[in-house]
Predict the structure.
Amino acid sequence: MAGDSAGATGTSAPKWSDELSELERAGEISVPWVRQAAEWLAGRGRAARILDVGSGPGWAASVLAASFPAGEVVAVDATPEFVARAAERFAGLGLGGRARAERGELDSAALDRLGPADLVWSSHVVHHLPDPVDGLRRLGRLLAPGGVLALAEGGLPARYLPGGYGVAAPGFVSRLEAALSDYFVHHWSLTAPAVGGGRDWPLLLADAGLHHLDSRTFLLDVPAPVDDQVRAYVVDRFTQIADRVGDRLDAQDAAALGRLLDPDDEAALVNRPDLFLLSAFTVHLAGPGAA
Ligand SMILES: C[S@@+](CC[C@H](N)C(=O)[O-])C[C@H]1O[C@@H](n2cnc3c(N)ncnc32)[C@H](O)[C@@H]1O
């Protein structure tokens, strides 16, 4: 994938740099589950050198630095704006001495110079690559002997309200998800693993010559009533859903989405005391395959 394009080849391909505020918000919201995953990894043994490949603005890398207090952490991303933000974050947290951010592309041989690492973390990056198995192979090449690749991919889509949200016919959430899948396939050129097609990640890791060790799923569980930060995140998500797929929904579902985003409606996300955030994120571990 070249530069900060999302991997789509058309001129309308979205740019990663446009996603900065979304990735910042999502990164902050994700800290609790990433912390659980990092503690699980730390419990498996020490890691002196840790890479976060496709780090975005550096939230997970900061969490990994906290869970591996003796580790050196390098956050690598193809998008210069995210690299700059990650570097600011590390400096702000006083991690400057042992965490750094670099621009780098997973599909470039130049990345090999960052290895070998005891732990390679890569979250929600590989499914964007035109050839995910090749991406996994490249991540595997960064591992030191005995090193572990922690691949965060898959899990369960988020839920925010019960049933039809009180505004739509049953099946509303499934219809939204189907429209979003379709949007991602066409606008972001996502490949089969990202949209639940083909082989699952443990098999893809094996296809890449890696040895699947374990998989564990972490909950992001914020029950009602949510705080202002979580509510703003959910409102953002739905605003984005409306922008992306509002015109792919039928009139009833489009009207329901409009009600959720209309602050004057008592059913709106900003007014709902029953709003929650429940999602699940899977981390697959793999080691180098047999030589
Ligand atoms: C969905 S975001 C995930 C960010 C972060 N890891 C997270 O889980 O929040 C995908 C990230 O991968 C980066 N990226 C996309 N293609 C890449 C490539 N070929 N090499 C390195 N980074 C890439 C993007 O710039 C973006 O930061």
